[in-house]
Amino acid sequence: MSENTKLLALLDTVIDCYLDKGEPVGSKFLNSLEAVDYAPSTLRKYLNALEKQGMVYQPYNSSGRIPTLQGLSAYLDSRLSERPDDFDLPLNDARKGLKTLVEALGEVSDGVVVGFIRNDEYYYLGINNLLRDDMIDEYSATRTIVRFIEEKKVVAFIDKKILKNQEVYYTFVNDTDTLISCVYVKVNLEGYDAVLSIVGPLRVNYKKNISILKKVLESLAN
């Protein structure tokens, strides 16, 4: 295994831990994981290399690492190339319309599901998904995300992009100093091109959300 491959694998582990815990990930914690089988000196060397590459950073001296947007982008690029996780989704009525599809996915996604056809139709469900325990201290950020969705800013941001069928996309939006994540696809429903997206904070279960959207694309293609 090349050193670059090892660095990317370590980056995945750091980001998985950060997304799960919401705290800087330190070398001591990483050494306790079975998936990380490096000598402490080697681990520190690799973490320093990731930091020099701009993939992670230390919010303060002697802290663990937090992924940067560049690091998250590399992580998501890897997730986009993987097959979706195998789990059941309530997609039997997926072809009945955009509103039905949004309602079905809003119950299982990690974030708010937003679906729209230009400015003609706009639906969202899952605001309660933002009110989880680890977001209590981020009340201001949560309000910004909710306002971003309610004011349909996601339409203006995504609708100007050229989207291909059967592709999952992601982006990060800075809205009033709050970073918002958005994973999205173009789908064809009842003869209309629509956008289906999952919007949330930076810390969401990207693997799950990407798998959900890939499953939607597979279901609509069959």
For the biggest β-sheet, the strand order reads: 4-3-7-6-5
Can you tell me the CATH topology of the largest domain?
A: Beta-Lactamase
**Could you say which structural class the secondary elements and strand pairing correspond to?**
alpha+beta
The number of distinct helices, counting runs of at least 4 residues, comes to: 8
What's the CATH class label of the largest domain?
Alpha Beta
Number of strands: 7
**Segments where pLDDT lies below 50 for 5+ residues?**
none
Largest sheet: 5 strands, antiparallel
Assembly classification = single chain
Q: Rg to the nearest angstrom? A: 19 Å
What sequence of helices (H) and strands (E) makes up the elements? Answer: HHHEEHHEEHHEEEH
Overall mean confidence score, pLDDT? 89
Shape: globular
The total number of structural domains is: 2
- Strand content is 15-25%
**What is the CATH superfamily label of the largest domain?**
GAF domain
Overall CATH architecture of the largest domain: 2-Layer Sandwich
Model description:
By secondary structure, the chain is an alpha+beta fold. The chain has two domains: 78 residues, Winged helix-like DNA-binding domain superfamily/Winged helix DNA-binding domain (Arc Repressor Mutant, subunit A, Orthogonal Bundle), CATH 1.10.10; 128 residues, 2-Layer Sandwich (Beta-Lactamase). A five-stranded antiparallel β-sheet has the order 4-3-7-6-5. A two-stranded antiparallel sheet has the order 1-2. Helix 1 crosses helix 3 and helix 1 packs across helix 4. It is globular, with a radius of gyration of 19 Å. It starts with a helix and ends with a helix. The model has no long low-confidence stretch (mean pLDDT 89).
